[in-house]
Amino acid sequence: MPRMRQHLFDRDLRYVIKPRYAARASALGSHSHWIASILIAVAVAIWLGRAPDASIDRAQPDANDTAVLKAQIASVLVAEPPISKAPTTSVQTLPPPAGMQGLAALSMPAKQTNHATKAVPAGPSTPAVGDTARVALAPPRDSLTATIPVAPAPHWQTVEIRKGDSLTRIFKQLGLDPRHAIIIANKPGARVLKNLRIGPHLKVRISDDKLVALQYQQNLTTLLRVATTGSDYSIDTVKRQFDITEREVTGLISDSLYRSALRAGLSDQFTYSLASIFQWQIDFATDIRKGDRFSVVFEEKSLDGKKAGKGAILAAEFVVSGNHYRAVRQVSKDGTSAYFAPDGTSLRGVFLRSPVAITRITSGYSLKRFHPVLKKWRAHRGVDYAGRTGTPVMATGAGKVIFAGRKGGYGKAVILKHGGRYSTLYGHLSRYGKGVRKGQRVNQGQVIGYIGSTGLATGPHLHYEFRVNGRHRNPLTVRTPKAAPVNAAEKTAFLKHATAWAKRLNQLTGA
Ligand SMILES: [Zn+2]
């Protein structure tokens, strides 16, 4: 930077006027010029280091998810149209070369520094100091040091969204009018800007302290774009499609379904989705035994060759105590999807097989007929589901609450009536579900209470009864109505589709 220092030195007129003062000024002058030079270099270094794509590139060696996400974002943003306005300084159009980020930029050629300083208008005040002052005033947040650029040519700056950040706050920190953040976030389609995701998901282009454009990476495949149109803003969304491949997993149940599925590489969430397809057929709390098996074929989503989560379950099978339960996904012409048995009959019953979600069930449950409190044998006209106190209990069918309160040995109990013939009872509850009162309607799967040990119970569990026309029936074996099968118009196509799936499942399970 010798040339630049020379340039500033020449314009210091105090030298000519007073020799004694000049000596002091000389010392002072060269000192401040030296600081100014360093500060410019640091500013350029920080700015280059924080260039949008540079920050993403540097993050890539970081392991796994965040790196994948950042790479995805980068690839989406790369597809953006080039900057339309010709920039006024060449430095800003230069892509940050590898190895020129951070401190490495301190040793950058003097030529480029000159471009940066040339852009500053020559005036009576020392321009270099003026610019470094902006650096010093920049907010302490790393990402926002991107506000450094000396010339107004707009380029993309990445803003790292932190916990508690709002668009308004970010606008303030970028020196933009925060009222415009509100205007933008209130636009149709821009609501997502009211609740920002933490991370480097925001990019802005600013010119003359005004927003030129903004991009927000809503999720892996969705990019929200905001552009200035006159005095207003326009919003649009760019959506990418995942690449879909099929994957299959088979598993042998050796302890609980969850642990076995986890060992087979399936998450809790996925196993829950899988189990819920069969929730009308299989009571995962009581039916599953060691040696049972499952197979599932599902969609694996990926973006640019990187896995991005699981999609729909296409077909699945459970082999429980030698019985085969199969499900095939059917997508109707109207786009809705449902699971059916390969013969086209519905898998959905009017009643759930179990009032307790599989996730909450403790293993090792067995039906007891010797009453543990009364210490005598007596009829047990229901099923007991083991579970921790506070485990949610669901209505197995849609219906009306006909009783909610204390009921002798049942403790806190809820009785639901489902149409004219059926009723269900849930006993030993620790408390009732929200809004569960006599006369209220509940939906299937709605939480009507929580497992407890009120009434005659040695420990927390749910006592569940099923009655048909007022008479007790075994909830595990009672035959209850089913939902509609595949509709007639689509049945032929479905059966063909299902036959192919049946073959595939046969191969998977070796049946
Ligand atoms: Zn019981």
Structure in words:
It is globular and about 85 Å long. Helices cover 28% and strands 28% of the residues. Strands 13, 14, 15, 16, 17, 18, 19, 20 and 21 form a nine-stranded antiparallel β-sheet that branches. Strands 1-2-3-4-5 form a five-stranded antiparallel β-sheet. It has a five-stranded antiparallel β-sheet with strand order 6-7-8-9-10, with helices on both faces. α3 (19-49) packs across α8, α4 (52-59) runs antiparallel to α5 and α9 (167-173) packs antiparallel against α10. It has helices at residues 2-10, 14-17, 19-49, 52-59, 64-78, 90-93, 110-118, 127-137, 167-173, 178-185, 257-263, 268-277, 488-509; strands at 156-161, 199-207, 210-217, 222-229, 232-239, 243-252, 293-303, 306-320, 323-331, 337-340, 370-371, 376-377, 383-386, 392-394, 399-406, 412-418, 422-432, 441-442, 447-451, 461-468, 471-473. With 511 residues, the protein is of the alpha+beta class. Residues 1-30, 42-149 and 359-367 have low confidence and may be disordered. The termini are far apart. Among the domains are: 243-340, Nuclear Transport Factor 2, Chain: A, CATH 3.10.450; 358-473, Glucose Permease (Domain IIA) (Distorted Sandwich). The protein contains 13 helices and 21 strands. It binds zinc ion. Zinc ion is lined by residues 380, 382, 384, 463.
